[in-house]
Write a structure and sequence with these properties.
- The complex is a heterodimer of chains A (444) and B (281).
- Chain A has 444 residues and is an alpha/beta fold.
- In chain A, 46% of the residues lie in helices and 14% in strands.
- In chain A, helix 10 crosses helix 17 and helix 16 runs antiparallel to helix 17.
- The longest helix of chain A has 34 residues.
- Chain A is globular and about 75 Å long.
- Chain B has one domain: MetI-like (MetI-like fold, Orthogonal Bundle).
- With 281 residues, chain B is mainly α.
- Classes of the chains: A alpha/beta (444), B mainly alpha (281).
- Chains A and B meet through helix 1 and helix 3 of A and helix 1, helix 5 and helix 12 of B.
- Chain A: This is ABC transporter substrate-binding protein.
């Protein structure tokens, strides 16, 4: 009897589950048709914004404004899940068939992984792409984003041309009126610093001795891009880095370490406390300073500069790393949804005032060629002079490697080259050779 | 009566487990529509991987540090609470609170305290001439993580010991006293053996915990320096979500499960043998 009862219960539950699944399947299909523009012709677009309140607020406002003018589109803005990272959240969504139609906050490296797996669509194939690029004045900026297959998969939203911050108050004490521009000038300054302040360091960066892949953007690539005039590192499946510039970059790290100018221990706000006098700096730091370190004043106790270059390179031509993220459209959406999402983006970027609103709200420089010359931004940049140099250098900023093996590649830069050079375990030449061999192994 | 649990287990344990075993033999990367069966390639790769080997060894290293510290610490706390004349509940809850604290938040606090320019390190440098790279040393970094975890779990395990202490009958102590067992002897020959069930539970829980460490090394060291804090969970996360090697990541997760199962089984057998020798069948 008991066994019979259990069997009956399982049968009942299975029946309920089957009926439920059946209903869901029907609803699901209808839902899909609706989303794609069903009887009432409303196209639903799921937009995942970066998981921070300012960016969400911006996109929500843009979506509301757009929907007021375009009644046939319904854009739902929500934060992308971070479990445990936003990339992992997107991967899980794709794997489970719940990817959005469009999302922002996508780095070029991650986009390369998505593109290699046909999870996102090329934006340059949309009707109106060229118009969008010309209206937003971003021809030069986006040119560097072209992938190895000659397509554009990401529309850069912002571009932080990474700069170095220098403690001008300490530089002045050491007899300088401007930051050094070449490697030998930096070493000379470091020696003077150590003589006067043995406890201070030139640069505090614990990541220099860790293989953390993304950390290479803010140390190795800033200096390599400056030394190589922005020469690519990897193109398609080929390692094409400038060997001479690479070895010089590593040699510079070696010299900094040898002269005890690097603090490779975790330190809290070392630049703000003047424990170190140089720092890799993005504009996201300024709101933090305004709140925690109001004494940090641009052109008073700190200034900004492009990365230093080898002695035989003209500092005027220096390039840097672009910390930049953008929008992608997912392949799993219907054609109608994809086009609706693209049209929304085109609408947003057809007005420079929207970029200005973004800039004001997030402090992240819009990825435009004309940011420092367009009148729309003039008054904001005049009121925030520390952002001007970031705006001016957007065309000099090189976006990250666009290879699906970006994590392995950048981990190897740390493991085989930068970490051992800083620790004094390898010469620059050997480190570069080992790194090159290891990366070639990954790219095979 | 068993069927709801059976259905729950099927959906949330058995199907995912079977799916994971299947994935472990593929090269799926989570986002590609297609993938291939790769046979034992993932297992062979994991067997020869430096980072998997590190995760295996680091877990036992953590175990060697964490298990004695947490057992001694939680037993000590339980004895203190047990000896209190009143407010036992309040102190028990107080010591339990770190267990509820967010691992990320406590790791960030520890990171701040141990940073180069923290007041603590500035004091050590200035007055004792000690310049210690706490999180950059392959010996100190795992020890700090083990101590952090011990702090977090001590209050929880102390509750298990406390319930063990509370359940020892007074008559046992009276009989022991009549035989001359007082003070240290009483603790050593009566209290400790009577706490065997609590020791058993706490040891198995503590050993199992070592195979799932993620937050503390993720926030504090990223698995470094030189893989000295690289755990199984970090390896699985890096492979599956950073490098998009979901198939390989699943392989590592399966190996982790097997190693965890075997390790706990060995510990159980050893503890049960030891217990049997002391009258606990």
């Amino acid at each position: 009897m008991k066994k019979k009862g259990v069997t009956k219960l399982i049968a009942a539950l299975l029946a309920v589950a089957l009926v439920g699944t059946g209903c869901q399947g029907q609803d699901g299909n209808e839902g899909k048709n609706d989303k794609g523009g069903g009887a009432n012709n409303v196209v639903e677009v799921d937009f995942w914004a970066a998981p921070n309140p300012t960016q969400q607020a911006f996109w929500k406002k843009m979506a509301d404004n757009y929907m007021n003018e375009h009644k046939n589109v319904k854009i739902k803005v929500s934060p992308m899940p971070e479990s445990p990272s936003s990339e992992a959240g997107i991967q899980s969504a794709i794997a489970s068939g719940h990817a959005p139609v469009i999302s922002e906050n996508i780095s070029r490296g991650f986009a390369a992984q998505l593109a290699a797996n046909h999870a996102i669509v090329p934006l340059d194939e949309f009707k109106g792409f060229d118009e969008l690029i010309s209206k937003r004045q971003m021809k030069e900026t986006i040119a560097k984003w072209k992938f190895a297959d000659n397509h554009q998969y990401v529309l850069p939203v912002y571009s932080n041309a990474m700069l170095f911050g220098w403690r001008m108050d300490v530089l002045k004490e050491l007899g300088y009126n401007a930051p050094p521009k070449t490697y030998s000038e930096v070493i000379e300054l470091g020696k003077k610093l150590k003589k006067k302040y043995p406890d201070k360091f030139l640069w505090a960066r614990a990541d220099l001795v860790q293989p953390t892949w993304w950390a290479r953007w803010f140390d190795f690539f800033m200096l390599y891009n400056a030394a190589s005039n922005g020469n690519s590192f990897v193109k398609g499946n080929k390692f094409v880095a400038d060997d001479e510039a690479g070895v010089k970059t590593l040699q510079f790290f070696h010299d900094l370490s040898k002269n005890d100018l690097l603090l490779t221990r975790k330190a809290t706000d070392p630049f703000e406390n003047a424990t170190a006098i140089m720092v890799d700096l993005g504009p996201w730091t300024f709101p933090y300073w305004a709140e925690k370190f109001p004494e940090m004043k641009f052109n008073q106790n700190y200034v900004l500069s492009l990365p230093p270059v080898p002695d035989d390179v003209d500092p005027k031509n220096a390039k840097t790393f672009a910390d930049t993220k953008g929008l992608v459209i997912y392949a799993s959406a219907t054609k109608e949804q994809q086009q609706a999402a693209f049209d929304f983006v085109k609408w947003v970027y057809s007005d420079a005032n929207n970029d200005l609103a973004w800039f004001k709200q997030t402090n992240l420089p819009p990825a435009r060629d004309d940011l420092s010359t367009n009148k729309a931004f003039a008054s904001y940049l005049a009121a925030n002079p520390q952002l001007k140099q970031y705006a001016e250098n957007i065309p000099n900023a090189i976006p990250p490697v666009d290879n699906e093996k970006v994590v392995d590649i950048q981990e190897l830069i740390g493991k085989e080259a930068l970490n051992p050079v800083v620790k004094g375990q390898k010469t620059a030449e050997k480190a570069w050779k080992d790194m090159k061999n290891a990366i070639n192994g990954v790219l095979k | 009566m068993a069927s709801p649990y059976l259905i729950y287990s099927l959906i949330f344990f058995l199907f995912p487990l079977l799916w994971a075993v299947y994935l472990a033999f593929t090269n799926w990367n989570l986002i590609a529509p297609d993938y291939e069966m790769v046979g034992l390639r993932n297992f062979i790769e994991a067997f020869f991987s430096e980072s998997v080997r590190a995760a295996f060894l680091v877990t036992y290293k953590f175990m060697l540090m964490f298990v004695p510290i947490v057992i001694a610490g939680s037993l000590f706390l339980a004895l203190i609470i047990h000896s209190l004349p009143r407010l036992k509940g309040l102190f028990s809850v107080g010591y339990f609170l770190p267990y509820l604290a967010s691992g990320v938040a406590s790791a960030i606090v520890v990171k701040g305290v141990l940073s180069y320019n923290s007041p603590f390190n500035a004091f050590l440098r200035r007055y004792l001439g000690l310049d210690i790279d706490w999180l950059g040393s392959p010996i100190l970094a795992p020890l700090i993580i083990a101590l952090m975890m011990a702090w977090k779990f001590m209050g929880y395990y102390a509750l298990l010991f406390l319930s063990g202490l509370e359940s020892i009958p007074k008559e046992v102590y009276e009989a022991a006293e009549m035989d001359g067992a007082v003070g240290w002897k009483r603790f050593w020959y009566v209290t400790l053996p009577m706490l065997y069930p609590s020791f058993y539970t706490v040891t198995i829980l503590a050993v199992g915990l070592m195979f799932g460490i993620f937050t503390e090394p993720y926030v504090l060291t990223g698995g470094g320096p030189d893989y000295s804090t690289h755990t199984w969970q970090l390896e699985i996360y890096n492979q599956a979500f950073q490098k998009l090697n979901a198939g390989y990541g699943t392989t590592v997760a399966i190996i982790n499960s097997v190693v965890t199962f075997v390790s706990i089984l060995v510990f159980r057998k050893v503890l049960e043998k030891w217990g049997a020798r002391h009258g606990w069948e």
